[in-house]
Design a protein that fits this description.
Number of helices: 6
Strand content: 15-25%
Shape: globular
Distance between the termini: 34 Å
Oligomer: single chain
Bound molecules: NADP nicotinamide-adenine-dinucleotide phosphate
CATH architecture: 3-Layer(aba) Sandwich
CATH superfamily: NAD(P)-binding Rossmann-like Domain
Largest sheet: 7 strands, parallel
Strand order of the largest sheet: 3-2-1-4-5-6-9
CATH class: Alpha Beta
Number of domains: 1
């Protein structure tokens, strides 16, 4: 689990075909990891693999992180291809960008299932393999899972992720498995496409968040970084 062992290691990243997940995948490949990335859209995954020159160390797996059969098969495919699993990054997620008092509930089911159920399914499907490697679970939460904003139902899903991280840590730490919650502030990614514009002010880049993810993942064996909140300077809440 230390930096100098990374050449042998394997990570599975949900939603790894764009944004933060793709940036983490690139960094881990550069560090010598073998990496599996998932996403619902085959095209996005293929484009990402092509952008990287289709390296043999990258496996792309189409599947929905909110569907247990898909998540189990992603873990199984990763183990079959690479033979072990050292880290999972529960990164897939999105926002409907509306509010509990005025929004459209039709969009909330998928958001809640992706953002809350998805990470739980990934933990359930991967924990046996992670016990074997004394690996790490990384959950991508949000600043919105630490601060309240009026009516923010997306924020409520991320509060659940904040809770899931610590609840999980308390169970799996005795098995030698680490748990890290990364809570990004505003970051320039396709996350904002459905919002219609980028939010005001200075935004982080996906690479800047990936730095923190990879830093936390590459701590020496026995060191478990639990919570990392990263905002751009100038983000007031
Ligand atoms: N950008 C920000 O400002 C910000 C701030 C705080 C937290 N975050 C969190 O960071 C994480 C990554 O988001 P991002 O900013 O990098 O945006 P992004 O580029 O839109 O990445 C989200 C990825 O998740 C995948 N995805 C969505 N639903 C999925 C599902 N049900 N099953 C499998 N894959 C799914 C998407 O691919 P497909 O659509 O092809 O499935 C996409 O590749 C999310 O959890 C987000 O909530 C983002």
């Amino acid at each position: 689990m230390s930096e100098n062992k990374s050449g042998n290691q394997v990570a599975l990243i949900t939603g790894g075909g764009s944004g933060i997940g793709a940036a983490v995948a690139r960094r881990l490949l550069d560090a010598g990891y073998r990496v599996a990335v998932t996403g619902r859209g085959e095209e996005r995954l293929t484009a990402f693999a092509e952008e990287l020159g289709r390296p043999g160390e990258l496996l792309t797996i189409a599947g929905d992180t909110a569907v247990y059969d898909d998540v189990r098969s992603a873990v199984g495919a990763t183990l079959r291809k690479f033979g072990r699993l050292d880290a999972v990054v529960a990164n897939a997620g999105f926002a409907t960008h509306d509010t509990v008092a005025e929004g459209d509930p039709a969009g909330w089911t998928d958001m809640v299932l992706t953002n809350v159920l998805g990470p739980a399914l990934l933990i359930r499907a991967s924990v046996d393999a992670l016990k074997e490697t004394r690996g790490r679970i990384v959950l991508v939460g949000s600043v919105a899972g630490f601060v309240h904003t009026p009516g923010n139902i997306y924020g409520a899903t991320k509060w659940a992720v904040t809770g899931l991280a610590e609840n999980t840590r308390r169970q799996v730490t005795e098995w030698g498995v680490g748990v890290t919650l990364i809570a990004p502030g505003r970051t320039e990614t396709p996350f904002w496409d459905s919002y219609g514009s980028l939010p005001p002010g200075h935004l982080l880049t996906a690479d800047q968040i990936a730095d923190s993810v990879v830093w936390a993942m590459c701590r020496p064996a026995g060191v478990d970084v639990n919570t990392v909140v990263v905002r751009p300077v100038g983000q007031p809440v």
